[in-house]
């Protein structure tokens, strides 16, 4: 299994508070991704990174920001959490020997915004 | 925008039955992956297919990529309760490092 950890695994927060989720990899993969998974919508890409300090928006980026200061860490920040951001968040990595197309996922973070 | 439609959305069968799930698009993909996700966990990669018409087997699971690289199927022979989970297909485009995911097929295999 790819070495990907996410923290925290569960979080409950209140509307309007800032939240940061962390993804850490030990695989030295170039690409990192943040997805959210919701019933009826499947996996949707929030932001992705193609290198240190190189990031770009996905299809549902409003209300989210990201940072990647080191190869191994990719942070997702909700500046002011809203109830619509209650979801399960997955980090993924790619870019190993199998190429960029195969993504490997972390265990997920369940976020509840009250 | 590339879209992947998976069918059926839900499938409940008895142990020992065979089943096929489908992943269809009007777009051409350079590669297609299948993942399985169990409750409370992240998706796990099962297979990648890249050539039109390609068939790959993984024990009782058979994956096929359509000749035109617009569709794929997953066939499970003699399903087991351990096959229960959400099956996701994902297509890679020209850039390859971004994937388009289908919404998944939720399979339940009853003992």
Q: What are its keywords?
A:
heterodimer, A: 114 residues, mainly beta, 7-stranded mixed beta sheet, globular, B: 111 residues, 6-stranded mixed beta sheet, 5-stranded antiparallel beta sheet, 53% strand
Characterize this entry briefly.
Chain A has 114 residues and is mainly beta.
Describe the structure in your own words.
Chain A is mostly beta strands and 114 residues long. Chain A is built from no helices and 11 strands. In chain A, strands 2, 4, 5, 6, 9, 10 and 11 form a 7-stranded mixed beta sheet that branches. In chain A, strands 1-3-8-7 form a 4-stranded antiparallel beta sheet, with no helix packed on it. In chain A, strand 7 (64-70) and strand 8 form a beta hairpin. Chain A is globular, with a radius of gyration of 13 Å. By secondary structure, chain B is mainly β. In chain B, the strands form 2 sheets. In chain B, strands 2, 4, 5, 9, 10 and 11 form a 6-stranded mixed beta sheet that branches. Chain B is globular, with a radius of gyration of 13 Å. Chain B starts with a strand and ends with a strand. The mean pLDDT of chain B is 93. The interface between A and B is medium-sized, with 24 and 23 residues.
Provide the gyration radius of chain A in Å: 13 Å
Helical proportion of chain B?
Answer: under 10%
Largest sheet of chain B: 6 strands, mixed
What percentage of amino acids of chain A are in beta strands?
A: over 45%
Number of strands of chain A: 11
Give the helix/strand class of chain A.
mainly beta
Largest interface: A-B, 24 and 23 residues
Cα-atom Rg of chain B, whole angstroms? 13 Å
Helix content of chain A: under 10%
Q: pLDDT below 50 for ≥5 consecutive residues: which ranges of chain B?
A: none
List the helices and strands and how they pair.
The complex is a heterodimer of chains A (114) and B (111).
Chain A: E1 4-7, E2 10-13, E3 19-25, E4 31-38, E5 42-51, E6 54-57, E7 64-70, E8 73-78, E9 87-94, E10 104-105, E11 109-113
Parallel strand pairs in A: 2-11
Antiparallel strand pairs in A: 1-3, 3-8, 4-5, 4-9, 5-6, 7-8, 9-10, 9-11
Chain B: E1 5-7, E2 10-14, E3 19-24, E4 31-37, E5 44-49, E6 55-58, E7 61-65, E8 71-76, E9 85-92, E10 99-101, E11 105-110
Parallel strand pairs in B: 2-11
Antiparallel strand pairs in B: 1-3, 3-8, 4-5, 4-9, 6-7, 7-8, 9-10, 9-11
């Amino acid at each position: 299994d790819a070495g990907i950890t996410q923290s925290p695994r569960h979080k409950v927060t209140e509307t309007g508070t800032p939240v940061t989720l962390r993804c850490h990899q030990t695989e030295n993969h170039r690409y990192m991704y943040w997805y959210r998974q919701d019933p009826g919508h499947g996996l949707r890409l929030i932001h992705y990174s193609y290198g240190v300090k190189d990031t770009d928006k996905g299809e549902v980026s409003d209300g989210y920001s990201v940072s990647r200061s080191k190869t191994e860490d990719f942070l997702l920040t909700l500046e002011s959490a809203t109830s619509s951001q209650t979801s399960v968040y997955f980090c993924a990595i790619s870019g190993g020997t199998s190429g960029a197309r195969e993504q490997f996922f972390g265990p997920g973070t369940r976020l509840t915004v009250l | 925008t590339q879209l992947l439609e998976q069918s059926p959305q839900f499938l409940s069968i008895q142990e020992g039955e065979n089943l096929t799930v489908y992943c269809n698009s009007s777009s051409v993909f350079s590669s297609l992956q299948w993942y399985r996700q169990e409750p409370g966990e992240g998706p796990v990669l099962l297979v990648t297919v890249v050539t039109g018409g390609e068939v790959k087997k993984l024990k009782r699971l058979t994956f096929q990529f359509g000749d035109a690289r617009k569709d794929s199927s997953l066939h499970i022979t003699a399903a087991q309760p351990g096959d229960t989970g959400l099956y996701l297909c994902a297509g890679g485009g020209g850039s390859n490092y971004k994937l388009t995911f289908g919404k998944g097929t939720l399979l339940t295999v009853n003992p």
